[in-house]
Amino acid sequence: MAGNFWKSSHFEQWVLDKGDLLRERGEDLKVYSEEEYQKLMIFFTNFIQEMGQCKERELGTQCNENTRDRPIQRMQAIATACVYFRRFYARRSFRDIDPFLLSMTCTNLASKVEEMGHLTHTKLTATFQRAMKKWALFDPQQMSLYQQIKHHHISETEFCLVELLDCSLIVYHPYRPLLQFRNDMKNACVQNAEHLYQDAWRVCNDSLKSDVALLYPPHMVAIAAIMVAALMRGGYEKDKELKNWLAELNVDYEKILEIQQMLFSMYSVWRTFDEQTQLKGLLEKIPRPNQINQTAHNVHIQ
């Protein structure tokens, strides 16, 4: 995996510089503080993950359970959609394409790229509406706007997305490196390696709510997730086997520490994010799409 990653378009084009990322967000950061922007991204990551879970339930009976890696593939499809979403807004503003429309498009495109099955427009729309109901964000009039999304809106938005991504659709995630690290930890007799792996998996899922997938290679995110999981479980300072195993890894621990700090910062913001009182105001501040520059944009928040 590592050799492929270093030769991939993910590494060559989509491991971004943090300063450049903040500059690209300049237009949206005129509307939102950095913390508000992070809260909005936390919400849309949760929204895409909910769409993915709704899709999984819809297609669950069609899944080939004989495929051992199927759980990883399912999570990768959701994670890929989240990364597409973040990559788009790393280069463009919310003004360019409505984020709810883009969330549908990213979910649909990721499902195809990760070979998780084609979603008909009817199923995609139903999945979107079920996810919307979880938050009960809009009144019936506003909901009717999103119900007007047609297949050609998704197709046009997908064209814009693929063009911005420069057809770099293969995304490397921390799940497979994490699986290899689990096996290595077991061989090194690290205590509770399986439980640590499961906790780190959840941290990898949560990492999509931060910028780490845009800034760091996936194996580094996996290592940071293991360390964060160990710290959250407690007893890290006394876990000699884990410390010895980590010490033998050939990795830049300054960057691992940066990832850890970003993850803990994300968890701190997430804990203070009261969706009941804060989300509606954040959504109302989303800039309206540019009528000239967007072709799939007649669906937007009023």
UniProtKB/TrEMBL annotation:
<dbReference type="InterPro" id="IPR036915">
    <property type="entry name" value="Cyclin-like_sf"/>
</dbReference>
<comment type="similarity">
    <text>Belongs to the cyclin family. Cyclin C subfamily.</text>
</comment>
<dbReference type="Pfam" id="PF16899">
    <property type="entry name" value="Cyclin_C_2"/>
</dbReference>
<dbReference type="InterPro" id="IPR043198">
    <property type="entry name" value="Cyclin/Ssn8"/>
</dbReference>
<feature type="domain" description="Cyclin-like">
    <location>
        <begin position="46"/>
        <end position="173"/>
    </location>
</feature>
<feature type="domain" description="Cyclin-like">
    <location>
        <begin position="183"/>
        <end position="265"/>
    </location>
</feature>
<dbReference type="InterPro" id="IPR013763">
    <property type="entry name" value="Cyclin-like_dom"/>
</dbReference>
<keyword id="KW-0195">Cyclin</keyword>
<protein>
    <recommendedName>
        <fullName>Cyclin-like domain-containing protein</fullName>
    </recommendedName>
</protein>
<dbReference type="Pfam" id="PF00134">
    <property type="entry name" value="Cyclin_N"/>
</dbReference>
<dbReference type="InterPro" id="IPR031658">
    <property type="entry name" value="Cyclin_C_2"/>
</dbReference>
<dbReference type="InterPro" id="IPR006671">
    <property type="entry name" value="Cyclin_N"/>
</dbReference>
